[in-house]
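Chain A, query sequence.
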Amino acid sequence: MPEVDKTIEEGKIWAFIGYWGILFLVPLLGKKDNKFAVFHGKQGMILFIAWVVIVWILGFIPIIGWFILRPIGGLLCLALAIIGMVKSLQGEYWKMPVLGDIAEKINI
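Chain A, predicted structure.
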């Protein structure tokens, strides 16, 4: 098996777990030698931080923020997490729009 395929196969489950909220730490700490797992773990970390910031900021906007924008932001983050999970299980290096660029700049 080629080295790239082996790295992806060994990192699939770790990468998948990286999109489960705070569990982004699992691939970042538990499989830091696997580039595939770390790639998805960093995206999961940025997505989690984005979700926390969205919920926190929109929580200050009465009515519209609480009942309209906050759920939309949460659903967007959930959709990105689901896409990331599916792509990680398919063995793809899928880069999220905007957040993927931020994740690439992080050195761990």
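The radius of gyration is 15 Å. The helical segments are 3-17, 25-30, 35-58, 64-89, 99-104.
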